[in-house]
Amino acid sequence: MKKKVFLVLLVVVLTASYAQAQFSFGARAGFNLTNAFTKYDGKKAEGDMKPKYKPGFQIGVVGEYAISDIFAIQPGILYATQGYKMSTLGTHPTMGKFESKITANINYLQIPVNAQYKVGLDGSALLLQAGPYFGFAFGAKSKSETTINGDTEKNEYNLKFGSKEDEINRLDFGLGLGIGLQLNAIQIGLGYKFGLANLSNVDKSSITNRGLAITATYFFGK
Question: How would CATH label the architecture of 19-84+105-137+169-220?
Fold first, then answer.
């Protein structure tokens, strides 16, 4: 009997919570600056071989499940372009001075799930958020440009996904942190993602995604 009463009360509480919560749907677009954090045999990449930030973009849809006036859960489905740039300067024993530039472009379908806390301001709100994200890569290209004694050669090829040394892992996941401002139906955000999945299959090598994003989200019906 007690179990039945408890279950009934639980259903009532959950139903009431669901009824009080509000769900909003919005469209998001943003600018990305992404990089790769690389290690080999436990040591960070340094100097000319250290990857640099590459510009990109993101676009998609976002939902907001408002549990209260100050707390919400915000999942999304985004198309995001990521990757990195790298340049190397050196001198070859026989060919002389050379410069090599590499740009890696990786396209991801990302699913972020953020917990969002709102601090009320006059007519607006300060947003603080954090949560995990999951990514699935479905296309990747690498562009190289090598200059030796004034002669430049350019190449472009598709990166492969798999478990071999010359392939990269398709799945990505990590944590995101962000801060923003809400003005009526619009949210402006600044976020940073820390990738935790190793994209490299080379022994003793580690490559993880890093990314800074500036986004604007418009929620319909707010």
Answer: Beta Barrel (2.40)
Q: State yes or no: pLDDT of 147 exceeds 90.
A: no
Higher pLDDT, 85 or 9: 85
Q: What is the dihedral of CA 126, 130, 136, 138, to 10 degrees?
A: 30
If we measure between CA atoms, which residue out of 193, 198, 196 comes closest to residue 211? 193
Phi, psi of 48 (to 5 degrees): -65, -25
